């Protein structure tokens, strides 16, 4: 590890991830299956600065496992940001959504962007060319849709997402896969088409664990799997003023 590496932690609803940065350069990234695994990793490392973003666990408990020479920042709606929040209820705004918006601003400064994070939920985040974050859309994610059909019916099975579903399914399983995978694709393209009516130059960015299913299929989209990490690092740098 480089001596001046900074750490960012992204604890989502279904996965725990961490990344190391030197300035704007992503050095390495890690995935953990449980909190204890993350804490064991952190106790063996030393960092210059760290930022922890968590919607799935106790950020304070994670911070206590860190050995940091500089700042430890627990991301919240009160953290200083490089963008302006125009959300009407900022206290309810998820830190993962803030990170995606900041990542979009880091990649496309002074430009409008729509960041789409395909995780447990599908989050759409719109930021304009003046760095104003306005909000977006939250809809059920791919796995959530498949699980809902299984859980709220008597006979529908639990099926897995696939990259290339049939359009007209020829079995119960393929019909469900078509409904979810093609339905999400139509949703993505529909939202993008609508946002571009008012913001023709809007950048479209896909990230999240399920983005891989839609890479190359979504209109005008940039596929940036590490977008949330980029955003977290942007916030960290904004707070500690490192280059």
Protein described:
With 243 residues, this protein is of the alpha/beta class. Helix content is 32%, strand content 26%. The protein has helices spanning 35-43, 59-63, 95-107, 142-151, 172-198, 227-240; strands at residues 6-11, 16-22, 25-32, 49-54, 72-74, 84-85, 113-118, 121-127, 132-140, 203-207, 221-223. It has a 6-stranded mixed β-sheet. Helix 4 crosses helix 5. It is globular, with a radius of gyration of 19 Å.
Short description:
The chain is of the alpha/beta class.
List keywords for this structure.
243 residues, six-stranded mixed beta sheet, 32% helix, alpha/beta, single chain, globular
What general form does the structure show?
A: globular
- The averaged pLDDT comes out at 92
Question: What's the number of helices?
Answer: 6
Structural class: alpha/beta
Number of strands: 11
Largest sheet: 6 strands, mixed
Query: What is the radius of gyration computed over CA atoms, rounded to a whole number of angstroms?
Result: 19 Å
Strand order of the largest sheet: 6-9-8-7-10-11
Helix content: 25-40%
Series of H and E elements: EEEHEHEEHEEEHHEEH
- Characterize the quaternary organization of these chains: single chain
Strand content: 25-35%
- Low-confidence spans: none
Q: How far apart are the first and last residues' alpha carbons, in Å?
A: 18 Å
